[in-house]
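Session log. Operator J.P. requested a structure for one protein chain; no other inputs attached. Running the standard single-chain path with token output.
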Amino acid sequence: MYRIMLADDEGIVRDSLKMIIEKHFPDQCQVETARTGRDVIELAERFRPDIAFMDIQMPGINGIEAIREIKKNNPGVEFIIVSAYDRFDYAREAINLGVMDYINKPFSAHGIVEVLQKAMGRIEAKRKKRSDDLLIREKMETVMPIIENGFVYSIMFQEAFDEDIQNYKKLLNMNADYGCMLALVMGDDQHGNHMTNAVGASVRIQSNYAKVRETVKETWNCVVGSVISNKIPVFLPCEKMKIEYEERIEMIDVCRELARKLRRITDISFRVGIGSIRRLNESMASYEEALKALVNSTGSVAHVDDLPIQCRYDKEYPIDLENELFARLRSGEREECEREAAHFFDWMLENYGENNMSVKLKTLEFVLWAEHIVYQDGGMTYHFQDRSNYLPLVMNAEKNSDLKNWFVGKFGEACRNMHTKKEEHANQMVIRAEQYIRENYHRDLSLDEVSRQLDLSPYYFSKLFKEETGSNFVEYVTGLRISRAKEMLSRKECSMKEICAEVGYSDPNYFSRIFKKNTGVTPTEYREGAREQKHVEKA
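Structure written below.
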């Protein structure tokens, strides 16, 4: 079936073309007609024709301009110009626009049939190519997991030559020479730092591997390996060796959400370990770091940079509590931080309550450490004498409850300062973003461009912007553009093209749709309403 559009201001021409088509191609074509240039543009958007017969001279927008507008949204249309004007400039413009043929009026039925058969042949060739491309894509979807697993295996176990790695990168369309490894560890449930029934989970995951792989790749632009024991290695390409603090926090948050998603779709629990960024030939070291991070943590997600895994502790020392306490401090989560501080103090009393001096020294050490972290972050100003009473206060404390309250209170205070600093930083970032958007919204402005200006990842910037402004990036930009457009429509006698260019839209039709979606009226209707309001005010 072919969708054919006939555009001509003469009814007899439209009827003649329709009769010829339906006579010679019965049950093969669906035909729609239009009289004006505007009508044909709107019809093309709704009807999505395969073939279009176009007159050049039509009321309003001429055929050449109409073709140009239609091709913006539907470049695959085969255009055939049918015109009484045998002018070279029209023919040249038609050639530039990729028009298939140019027929002069009056035309013959034989000529119309001949050119229509040619157009149908070109449409069929396009459909076959599209079908072949889809088939290739389907085959690649089948092969791609094998290619990705080969790449991950090669960089982890160094069982490929440099030439092989480069071939893998080409197949995967990858340019990065750095990356970090993620370790997705699965089990029935999490107990402490390990997963229960790892063997059973690794067996069950096989039937859900495709879903897991798809979900991971929706989350990250990454390469996913196959299941190894109860683990899935994932390579995350990076453009630089160093990861910023905000990016690390963002990565942890995204991985935490990923673990929750995987649990929902598989009914299997997941933990995610994150290694450091390294060169491709050091990927195994990054993967081992990811596993060690999980061993030294009880959280669902652990990043190697957040864990003092190089330190050695007594077996009974609660490194998981310590890590969680300072992680809460760094994230500015005051209530959670105070709760973890209380848990750690209770552990000290339970295990070393008889050694009162050790408890006091650890209390003082952790408070000083916590404040040092906040000083480094810029959340507090260091004054040399501010802590001169800490030592006598701790040493002279007679009740453990008083010491605990002081300990928890100091962590709460440090956390509050950290949170305030983060809010100030976030506010400053958003202010800079808003200023940049206001200066550039008339251009084709993207989220990636603004995030680069702030040296933030797109994901973190998008989340931050939404939290601070209450609107997402697109909504905010659209609001500015619509506001400026309304101002121009009310105060200036500008053409619609000029207004579009001023507010950052290249396509007047798209601008009209966006404007109506946000205001409930078209730009023309808004302008007329504004004029009527002015007349009322003058009267």
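Operator note: The longest helix spans residues 109-157.
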